[in-house]
Amino acid sequence: MPELTYKDQKIHYDLHTKPTIYYVKIYMDELNGAQVTAPEKRKPELIEAFLKKKAAWMKETWETHHTELYHVDRLSVETGQKINYLGRSYQLILNEGHDYAFSFNKGKFLFTYPGDEKDEQINKQLIALAKEWLREKSEKKFSDLHSRSISAEEDAARLGKKDQDEIILNWRLIQQTKEFIQEKIEKLIEEETC
């Protein structure tokens, strides 16, 4: 499956060529990501050049339609914030300390940070540590949701993909309910598009 990289996000796309069309068309499928239809005789390098020009639009469109998956990217050192994990929102507790630390304990996320750091640096660390924690949990939890082999992939502009008998899910889905994740697994198995 071909892919583009825009900033830090991979944009995978399925390319379908047809003899009866005359222009490149991009459709952002909710489940499978970018679906590209192009003229059969169009050179691959021209298709890729067009897609590179549209990469920002594709990323923005994807994130706009999946804002709930990107909440973690907007965390900051402010009281009253919550982090979603398996469909529930858990309070984020902030503590000044000597070093950076992130954990989940007794139904709350705990973030410790050095008091002498600037807010911008603290926010960066909070986001990085929260994403790392969720990513690690996705590796463990996804495989418990189905009898098929399921693994997590880095953030991609798709919810997942079916690769022979294996299902690969975007790690960000760990923020959704188990039922939601299982529904997406079934749709991937059935090779549905949305």
UniProtKB/TrEMBL annotation:
This is YgjP-like metallopeptidase domain-containing protein. It comes from Halobacillus alkaliphilus. Residues 23-181 form the YgjP-like metallopeptidase domain. Pfam families: YgjP-like (PF01863). InterPro entries: YgjP-like_metallopeptidase.
